[in-house]
Amino acid sequence: MGEKIAEKDMVRLDELLADLGSQRGTLIPILQKSQEIFGYLPREVLVRISEKTGSPLSRIYGVVTFYSQFHLKPRGRNIVRSCQGTACHVRGAKGILSELKKELGLEGEEATTKDLGFTLETVACIGCCGLAPVIMVNDETHGRLVPDSVKGILDQYR
Amino acid sequence: MEKLARAHVLVCGGTGCSSSGSKEIIPEMRDKLKEKGMDMEVKVVETGCHGLCELGPLVIVYPEGVFYIRVKPADVDEIIENHLIKGRVVERLLYREPATLATVPDYDDIAFYKKQKRYALVNCGHINPESLEEYIGADGYEGLAKALSMKPEEVIGEVKKSGLRGRGGGGFPTGNKWQFTRAAAGDKKYVICNADEGDPGAFMDRSVLEGDPHRILEGMIICGYSVGADEGYIYCRAEYPLAIKRLQGAIKQAMDTGLLGENILGSGFNFTIHIKEGAGAFVCGEETALIASIEGRRGMPRPRPPFPANSGLWGKPSNINNVETFANIPSILRDGGDYFASQGTETSKGTKVFALTGKINNTGLAEVPMGITMREIIYDIGGGIPDGKKFKAVQIGGPSGGCLPEQLLDLAIDYESLTKAGAMMGSGGLVVMDETTCMVDVARYFLNFTQDESCGKCTPCREGTKRMLEILNRICDGHGTDDDIPLLESLASSIKAGSLCALGQTAPNPVLSTLNFFRNDYEAHIKDHKCPAGVCAAFVGYTITDNCRGCGLCKKVCPVDAITGEIKGKHLIDPNKCIKCGACQAKCPFKAIDKG
Predict the structure, then answer these.
(1) Is A1 a residue whose pLDDT tops 60?
(2) Cis peptide before B305, with omega less than 30 degrees from 0?
């Protein structure tokens, strides 16, 4: 944790804030775009957003922690989302999730691998129920899985 | 002008088919056709979803309308050589009816499509969603042109006449909602499209957004004209990247051609549409929470009234409808409200899209007239239950809905009949469950979901769902007591009565309906310490029998390393490590693993 924040990324943040900071209702898009720049939302970034937009830090923190999309800790280069929707649940999503954890070497509540290669999270429904059980890696969907297929899929991103 | 092609090859580019490999088929098809010099006479079109995602990637060849399933890039040569050159249908890629295994070449003869009445989904899978021309060619924007020639009150009158009710779950009459927003005082008004499709097991909105984005824009513009709004927002889940991309493209095309922007079609009416990406919170499907989220705040519901029609986005009158509701508007204007109202039942007009999933042969999207029976949907359209298993229940309406048993299969479906049976229309997710599904586990699954998504603002929902989940966990873990069922029922009624928004008010439904129809399942867990379906881990265990040859496959497949043993020797499962996923049993080639 505690990766150094690059100066050029802070410049990009300032440009973003100059562009959107004064408009109303833009806090969530600002956070979404900041997360695209930094990969997650470090404290320094939230402080800067607060200074430039005039929103109290507490309010920004409240929004960040409300939505599952925002992250306060560094994330892996690849995001694996394991669908836990109803259709996936009745077709064995639990076994896929435990295989993903095993294959990525994640224990307990850990979500990100030590080398920051992967972050594993669950999602309520990806909307690909016809292919259940499903996982999404970055923007790509992989369906009709059995625990055996997990390794091959992860290897494509290693 | 583009030359008319003698044949069209439609390749489904919906999310389902893309992830099954349709993305590779399209360039392969184009390259091969070019090689043969046929690229001018055969046109390859990437379409939206056909609804039968299970069998994707889907390819349809017109003019014959031949329907090919599970097509791979390697099949492209054969389709070109035999079908497109020699005119012979490629038999091995045809769809087979699950019951008879007979091949069905013609799209329209497939049982899955035969009973459907595609109204909202009419273009999905049939036009290129990225082409404005194709949408217009399919009578697109005709409804808008007609609406703009009418008075706004007349447009609302037509929507009222159609009897259309909100397709997002509530079922509120759409025309009345529009009327309220029109009547509200204020010169600035908004139209909002709720595309935050969050119910697990529902994907009809995704399909329309990806397959026919202009239809949603058209519905919103018509709404804006009739309620007096000049700005619209589409609040779409960030988990739907393709839908967002297609919407952005469609908005640009509409702006460039004067269908959006200033003085639309020369009528003097102005309207713009923005997209807001959701940030991942189920409760934002609730209208006041959705508005809070667009305004950049925590998406928490607030008490109503005032309703958004009077005080919505930025405190201005706002009309919010769901994607599927807007999808019905263009045709209602084009064909008239009476035509729409001729379908369906006395109180629920028109058609409804259902997402069929779970233990069913044809998973996918089916649009049917209201009043159809569950049996027709599951057996005629869905092709029944796979692997000769027995039907147990169908869960309808997502986390707010309920589970209906076999004796209610002949119920004619509409808003009222479902609510009376303890379920609800919801967004239209239908999850079919067979005899191997444990209803206590299903109830727990949904409670776990709603508990997780509860925003925490009101106590009944925040605390109540947590307590209910604890009880359900206890029952599934084998520690249930005789008091648990009455306690669940009493908590359920308090949460229903006391919660602020629909999330809490409906959260107990999955528990109440399973208690009502499948009480035996609960009692078996509590009194007999058994899970009749063999799902709840506390009551099942896997053991390896003497049939084991020591091949080691089970050991390899076990995700938690619970299996030990040497090659050619009998293997053992450690019951303390085993998570009962069943992967070993499915893998064992000698049927040497018993579940009991």
Answers:
(1) no
(2) yes
